[in-house]
Amino acid sequence: MKLPLALPFLLLVASAPAAVSTGTPFSGDPPDATHPWAIHDRNRPQPPRVEPGTSSTATQPGRPPSDAIVLFDGTAASLAKWEADTKPGDPPAPTKWIVRDGALECVPRSGQIRTKEQFGDCQLHVEWAAPVNVQGNSQGRGNSGIFLMGLAEVQVLDNYNNPTYADGFAGSIYGINPPLANALRPPGEFQAFDITFRRPVYQDGKLVDPGYITVYCNGVLIQDHTPLEGPGGNMRRSSHRPFPERGPLKLQDHGNPVRFRNIWYRPLPPRSIEGGTDGALTPAATLAKRRSIAAGIRSAAAQLPRDSVAELLRLAESLVYEKDAATAQRVDLLANAYVQTLRTQPAAELERQRGEIESTRRAFVYLERHGFVAKDHPALAGLNRIVSAQGWDQQKKK
């Protein structure tokens, strides 16, 4: 078996798909029963690139991030993304709300509106303004609501010098939890709500995650990962119940000409409890993901030069995620052949290959330490002897 002798260790990084990170294999703690990834795992997908948006000003809405799905951009054309909130079974109907000066304005007593698009977990941005002409008090002043999936309400209300009951205050999860602070600007000025929404999750009819809402008002945290208690409600205590997977965003008509602008959302990935792969997983989900990662690494190894050091180390890396008898046998064969080839090389040639040899040795030290290869593996013992004979271990001690 012929092994290329001076293949640079950098080839191991170059052989990985372009989307992987630049982490070093055989370094951080390996995967475990509930974590499919190693610490600093180079096989873990990189975050997608998103171009940030810009902040809004009092007169000008900001630009959404590049991956945002825009629901209202201030144009009459975007009103086509909305419809009247008709009763179940009734045909769709256009909304009677109007677009005025770049804002979506509630026409009092015309009914709530909803998006035609439906979605679930999300980052949501909504800007709203109560009428500059102040009328009424408590719940009768600048009242509306933002209904996530048409169910859970984040209250919209002009509470600038206008007290009301705490769990109906602007930024409250209506009927469930008051906001942490009143960060409102005066009426007539636009307020910015940035909302992170996670719907409740049920499995086999049992609640496994209540869902959460986080809200920032004008950059001030006012709901801190608040657990849902069902959808909330008026005058009645809410209780847990399943939400659909998707639903519309609804805006309330409470009899006040509240204005909205710059409405967009970003879908959020699934949580680990519902199939996502970040964070602690169930043992079964972890095992399935580790198998998938190992299969991907073995597939990448098959594209490398046959019988090369690069193939050896890539296959060895796959054993960190899944024990596989055929792969382990192939690793043993390649490693032992590699050591036998090195034994025939003069000291000067070994010195030239020092980086590759020491990298391979470090890999087998890691594999042995964590039980992925047999203790006292012959290849590791042979590499140790070469390192010692070359005096490299002594050089490091100085």
What features would you highlight for this structure?
single chain; 398 residues; alpha+beta; Jelly Rolls; 2 domains; five-stranded antiparallel sheet; 24% helix; 20% strand; elongated; disordered N terminus
Description:
With 398 residues, the chain is of the alpha+beta class. It folds into 2 domains: 10-44 and 279-397, no CATH class; 69-274, Jelly Rolls (Sandwich), CATH 2.60.120.560. 24% of the residues lie in helices and 20% in strands. It has helices spanning 10-14, 283-301, 309-318, 325-343, 347-352, 354-369, 378-390, 392-397; strands at 69-72, 82-84, 98-100, 103-105, 113-119, 122-129, 144-148, 152-156, 191-198, 201-203, 206-209, 212-217, 220-227, 247-251, 259-267. The strands form 3 sheets. Strands 1, 3, 4, 6, 9, 12, 13 and 15 form an 8-stranded antiparallel β-sheet that branches. A 5-stranded antiparallel β-sheet has the order 2-5-14-7-8, with no helix packed on it. It has a two-stranded antiparallel ribbon with strand order 10-11. Strand 10 and strand 11 form a beta hairpin. Helix 3 (309-318) packs parallel to helix 6. The radius of gyration is 30 Å and the shape is elongated. The chain starts with 9 loop residues before the first helix and ends with a helix. The model is unreliable at 1-18 (pLDDT under 50).
